[in-house]
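Ticket #4471: complex job returned nothing on first submit. Input attached below:
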Amino acid sequence: MKTELNADITNALQAIASREVRHVFLIACGGSLSIMHPGKYFLDRHSSALTSDVYNGDEFVTRDPRKLDGKALVILCSQTGTTKETVRAATHARKKGALTIAMTLDPQSPLAEAADHVVAYQASYTTGIPIDAAESNYGVLYMILAGLLRQSDTIDLVPPLLSSLSHLQPAIDKAHVQYAALFDTYADQFKDAPVIYTVASGANYGAAYSFAICVFMEMLWINSQAIHANEFFHGPFEVVDRNAKFVALIGLDETRRLEERGREFLYRFGARENVLALDAKDLDLTGIDEGFKGYLVPLIFFDALWKFAYKLAAKREKIMLEDRRYMKKISDY
Amino acid sequence: MKTELNADITNALQAIASREVRHVFLIACGGSLSIMHPGKYFLDRHSSALTSDVYNGDEFVTRDPRKLDGKALVILCSQTGTTKETVRAATHARKKGALTIAMTLDPQSPLAEAADHVVAYQASYTTGIPIDAAESNYGVLYMILAGLLRQSDTIDLVPPLLSSLSHLQPAIDKAHVQYAALFDTYADQFKDAPVIYTVASGANYGAAYSFAICVFMEMLWINSQAIHANEFFHGPFEVVDRNAKFVALIGLDETRRLEERGREFLYRFGARENVLALDAKDLDLTGIDEGFKGYLVPLIFFDALWKFAYKLAAKREKIMLEDRRYMKKISDY
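Support reply: We reran it on our side without changes. The output follows.
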């Protein structure tokens, strides 16, 4: 049972405790950026002291918001710690007098070097060794933010977060078992799809975004977009026909009714066999605090969906998820 | 020559001048939401007093951020003023003690009724009568925000904005002439495309978003996504091959190099005949203030691209841009 924040998180928070933090910038690129969306959702819901923004690394540097000053905290994330745009963002933020915390797998990486404080996390795919999801990018980000909130707003959500994180990996393991047959069916159904959309809102939006751009587009070369579950009704839904393929995430946060409405529409005007809907109500979330279910469900969905990606890959012409045309193959773009 | 803010904007700003505003929520759905992105870009660049968020109407109501309080200003937009989610958002915001300004074509609409203050704008497509782009949703939003900035930050960008807006319509008219042949060529080239992406960053992102979801998806039933020009390199670019179709916007704001990089990649690994790139450097922007070019270019791009939509529609099986499967045809979803 996890009862304390990780030491590097505690150290980083202690080091910044004396500084007044007014605004939090959540900065990364691609998959690492996706976790920042639920991070902001968490802050929006709970903080009256802190405002926040989520930006891609290069957008942040060039946009150069006026709020980036000595009262800003900039949290950056890059798996390898080598993402150039994110490293540049850390350097830029420090130059502006802001505090910086780097989240990375590698505490010796360029991003770690560029930031004031480093917080390590784990990812199973780099090592092949299973990890505890509590120590994943999502888990660690929530720990940083709950710790920050305790300092800025004197709301202490750290204990329920830690106990919830302690029960996360078993929930994920059960989800894998639960979804196995469903994923087999939908991998067959989706294997020739030229386009697959993802739909979500609130804390789930980041997972939908990441699955669309990093899994469908990057790894499987399938056209995709993460559609916000309500924005769906203001344009995107016109592409829906009986053949349109969707992955719909239905979570447990306050925006759930938006996601439910999206699913209902898809079931009615699309075809059930073309809508892979994951509903968190079906999950066994034993031990996860009621107030944290909404925040942790996207981790479960995203982790579970990896298995779907592998099953889909195995049935498509492009067999290896690891194959790329450009990323890390061509260096001068 | 425009020398004063519209009377309804001046009235709304005067009415809120006595209140302390700390945070601005920019709330709408679909195409109306798209204009809020450059609005936030403008605030980010110029305001040290105000923070801001851009949210879909229903996301805003359900997320219910803690910052939505008596020091929040909520600017909402809906063309007809009947968008249910946006009307609900106005009601919710007032209940929370926030100030509300509704932007709409119809000052007697439900949204206008639900908000504290109403600001009218114009759109040519509803009446068929050409308008001055200064009075469009974008123009009016910038006027509200520049006026607000004058009150909150004592930076007066109203005079250069107004003189720039006065020169906007001639710049748009010239762009239409300039792009006519280009759009003919690309309408031929894109007419059978199952997927067309849009790419942009900074102030242009909203125009790319709107063109993707409201024009390609809603009106033309073409699969699409607005890809952020740097996020493009963190996943989405792997779908690029010689046949992939893109509309790339290259503007004049601080993020320009992100958009240039995207275009270079697409030219190199895609095919020039499949990349419709609009570069604002080619536009005649006579009379538009240097500091406002970046903000006004997306209006020019978006207005110009309407002609491309019509040309594309004329060559596709689905002939009428007005045809819908669901929107305003089915009422109970």
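Chain A has two domains: 7-164, 167-315. Closing as resolved unless it happens again.
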